[in-house]
Design brief:
Layout (H helix, E strand, L loop, with lengths): L12 H12 L6 H8 L3 H13 L3 E4 L3 E4 L1 H24 L7 H8 L5 H10 L25 E2 L8 E7 L4 H9 L7 E7 L6 E4 L5 E4 L1 H6 E5 L8
Antiparallel strand pairs: 1-2, 3-8, 4-5, 4-8, 5-6, 6-7
Helix pairs in contact: 1-2, 1-4, 2-3, 4-5, 4-6
Bound molecules: zinc ion.
Zinc ion (ZN) binds next to helix 4 and helix 5.
Length: about 230
């Protein structure tokens, strides 16, 4: 690989489509953002955007980046569904920790078919969220809209439930996992400190956790009704 550092044979058309979705959703993704996300050169991304446009997967305008066409979006949903179901399987049935599922799923998602994906969904009981709390698109390609807010926007005294952790850093995921700060956990917000963005929460066993602003930004929560039990 050292001769041509910006060419990764493992980066496929599907990876690009997913990267456009993950950096921009239904908006336009810039060459730079996609290059960073996939660890490839901006020139490779520009070339690929032209190819994806020819394939009818993106609309590409110079200086405006690339946005997914309807076909591109459907392809992104198909791959996200596959990826997130595999992550769920690895965590629930193969004993993987939640910080290790993403890497493995990135590899496996290239190897499985749509038929395998649907059988896996059935085997898992059609889960709606992956281990990080991200919604799993349906087989028809619909995705649950975002209904949660970052913990940093919670109010002091509020009871919240973690719905999603938007973190790619394994060390951070391990840190949160060890403390039980994972999707489904209920927290009481003790303090939201404006001066430094630190949020202090109390878990259900009464233990306090002080979370710096970057963490409070990447943990997404929903207000928890007092009577509600289970996830
Ligand atoms: Zn993942």
């Amino acid at each position: 690989m050292s001769e041509v550092p910006d060419v990764q044979p493992s980066v496929s058309v599907g990876d690009y489509v997913k990267a456009v979705w993950e950096t921009a959703g239904s908006g336009a993704a810039s060459t730079k953002d996609v290059a960073e996300r996939l660890s490839v050169s901006p020139a490779s991304v520009s070339n690929m955007f032209v190819r994806l446009q020819e394939m009818g997967l993106v609309r590409h305008e110079r200086y405006h980046g690339a946005s997914l066409t309807e076909r591109g979006r459907a392809e992104a949903m198909r791959l996200l569904r596959r990826h997130r179901l595999i992550e769920t399987f690895l965590l629930e049935h193969l004993g993987y920790s939640w910080q290790d599922v993403h890497r493995e799923a990135e590899r496996l998602e290239h190897a499985v078919s749509d038929d395998f994906t649907e059988r896996l969904a059935q085997y898992l009981g059609h889960p709606e969220h992956d281990p990080h709390g991200d919604p799993i698109p349906t087989a028809e390609g619909t995705l649950e809209p975002e209904q949660s807010k970052p913990l940093k926007d919670a109010r002091t005294g509020e009871r919240v439930r973690i719905s999603r952790v938007a973190q790619g850093d394994n060390a951070v995921l391990a840190y949160l996992g060890e403390r039980g700060l994972v999707p489904g956990s209920v927290l009481k917000v003790r303090e939201v400190r404006d001066v430094d963005g630190v949020v202090v929460v109390e878990d259900e066993s009464g233990e306090a956790h002080s979370l710096g602003e970057p963490l409070a930004r990447s943990i997404f929560v929903r207000a928890e009704q007092v009577s509600r039990t289970g996830r």
